């Protein structure tokens, strides 16, 4: 597997892996009809926006690494009580 693909499939690097997989699966199941999968695309887009804002805030606060690990993301989402996206 190429390095880029491995990085995209790494849950510590890609916080929206499940949303990405869900949109890809939806496209495959619906004969690549984008309108049928718009809710999946929106959820993925909102996920990316949310984690990007977290990453920007962590950079401003000097927290390393800027993107929380998968375990840290689980704690953040658990503290929020619900999915923000």
From TrEMBL:
Is Disulfide bond given among the entry's keywords? yes
Q: Where in the cell is it found?
A: Mitochondrion intermembrane space
Q: Which InterPro entries match?
A: COX23 (IPR051040), Cys_alpha_HP_mot_SF (IPR009069)
* SUPFAM superfamilies from the UniProt entry: Cysteine alpha-hairpin motif
Which top-rank group of organisms is this from? Eukaryota
Family listed: Belongs to the CHCHD7 family.
- The entry's protein name is Coiled-coil-helix-coiled-coil-helix domain-containing protein 7
């Amino acid at each position: 597997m190429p390095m880029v693909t491995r990085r995209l499939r790494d849950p510590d690097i890609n916080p929206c892996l499940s949303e990405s997989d869900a949109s890809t699966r939806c496209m495959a199941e619906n004969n690549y009809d984008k309108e049928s999968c718009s809710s999946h695309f929106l959820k993925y887009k909102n996920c990316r926006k949310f984690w990007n804002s977290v990453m920007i805030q962590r950079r401003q606060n000097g927290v390393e690494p800027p993107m929380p690990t998968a375990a840290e993301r689980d704690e953040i989402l658990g503290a929020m009580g619900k999915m923000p996206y």
